Amino acid sequence: MHSLRFRFLLSIVLVACLALLALWGIAHFLVYPKLLARENDYVALEMGRVESALKDDLDNLGGDTRDWASWDDAYDFMQGKAPDFAESNFSQEMFEDMDHLMMVFMRMDGTPVWMAGYNPDTDTYSTCTSATNECRWMSPFFNVIQAHVHQQAPELDKWLLSVPTPAMIATSPIVPTERGSEPPLGWLAIVRSMDRPWFESVRHQTGVNVSIEPILHPDLIVKPPPIIRISDDQLLATRWLNAEPNDDILSLQATLARRDFMANTASFNFAMLWTIGVLFTVVMVILGLLEFIILAPTRRLARFTREQRQEDHFSETLPVNLIARRDELGSLAREFQHLLMHQKQRTDTLEHLSQRDHLTGLLNRRYLDEYLVQALTQAHQARHSVGLIIIDIDYFKAYNDHYGHPEGDHCLTRVARTMDRVVDDQGIVARAGGEEFVVVLPETNRKRTWRLAEQLRLAVAAMSLPHEHSRVAPHVTISVGMAISLPEAPCQPAELMRLADESLYRAKKAGRNRIDAHHREPHHQIDTL
Ligand SMILES: Nc1nc2c(ncn2[C@@H]2O[C@H](COP(=O)(O)OP(=O)(O)OP(=O)(O)O)[C@@H](O)[C@H]2O)c(=O)[nH]1
């Protein structure tokens, strides 16, 4: 059997577990996805800024290239009219300031006219008419540019390059500014390396740390996801930029701090912890209230009920604090108390009925037998004498026959009442059966027993109940036999009854309306009224 406390505890723990599960579900399925979606938006915004910085840079490069390519001096230079144009306008300082890696003037068919480059690795600036000797390092760029312009319409173009190093390139046809529709004489291409200084400038503009990696033959590799959450406080965002040659890809990567996500997560965890703490406190308070309001009183009621089964603990009054309650438990306790009292009354009535003779109201034979056993046992221990008197109405059959049975009953009742009054608290009077009565005196002696027997006989005679057919007197008389259990010669109940019965028999035989005692008693003469 599980106690109420256990059941309540189990239920509340189950409810608490469900609540925790619900919190976990809310966190896992609602809050964290929402936070991650917000973080994705944040990443898109940041990467958008980086891409737009890159685009602006590319646009600037394109603008510079177009400006140089549409300058009349450049057009003249391509015509051979201004041979010093390039050498005098371009220098290492300018390349460093403009962050240019190289530039090349070429004819429409891609033949180089003049090229210059600043190699940051060797910190050298060189100019050449072809990608040879000190300008050899420019040849990979030049070759791609050459291939590109072969397929390009004569207008400004800006694009990204993957190898030999990530770079942005602008190519523009060389045309005169104000000479109407004269054909372009060649191409100007300017290359800007996307290396560490470029990363620094992007970081300066956007506040984001970026890097660029070329991915050659992108069809052959598995692209990593656009967002990789490296740790709790950092993520790696990737954007794919188309580049030449061979449809390569530049992987633009940025390491972003997960500040918002961390802050939101910390706030949510803080709220969760408080929620769990409040939940736990509520559970404990509910348990305490349950214990105080229901469980403890219920246990008191159960304990009280249990005690009632043990006779020596019987009590009709429940604990006051239970009875005084103004709730369901209080009314249950009060109802229970009424039930107990009612039960007690019925038990008392039944006990009374089981001990009494229904006609005379005297104690019955069953009670007499039990009482006699008890009285003799106690007298034996306390070394007392027990007196037993048997009374029988004389010629009662004749009485019945003459006056009728109901009148006989009436006579029995009146005789019984008289004897009960005479004995009073000296002992008990029982109806042993028919017209025979027994008196037991638990603490007595021979003399007192004899005297009471005589008082009984005289009292019945004094009632003067007419008895026309009695042969000893004109009224109802009794014969009495008595016996005593002495401490020095104790008797068993049956023996004492037998001795008293024998005395009665002798009294009857001797003429009735008299007393006879057990033979050890002094002999007494017949007393006749
Ligand atoms: N009215 C009435 N009569 C009863 C009751 N119980 C027993 N009796 C009668 O009591 C009578 C007892 O008669 P007996 O035992 O023959 O003795 P007796 O006539 O009294 O004569 P002795 O005892 O020898 O003097 C019987 O007639 C029973 O019917 C009772 O409850 N009511």
From TrEMBL:
Domain of life: Bacteria
UniProt GO cellular component terms: plasma membrane
Enzyme Commission number: 2.7.7.65
Any one GO MF annotation of this record: diguanylate cyclase activity
GGDEF domain mapped to chain residues: 384-520
Catalytic activity: 2 GTP = 3',3'-c-di-GMP + 2 diphosphate
InterPro entries: CHASE4, Diguanylate_Cyclase, GGDEF_dom, Nucleotide_cyclase, Rev_trsase/Diguanyl_cyclase
Transmembrane segments: 271-296
The entry's keywords: Membrane, Transmembrane, Transmembrane helix
Record-level GO BP terms: cell adhesion involved in single-species biofilm formation; negative regulation of bacterial-type flagellum-dependent cell motility
UniProt cross-references to SUPFAM superfamilies, sorted A to Z: Nucleotide cyclase (SSF55073)
Cofactor dependence: Mg(2+)
NCBIfam families assigned to the protein according to its UniProt record, in alphabetical order: GGDEF
Full protein name: diguanylate cyclase
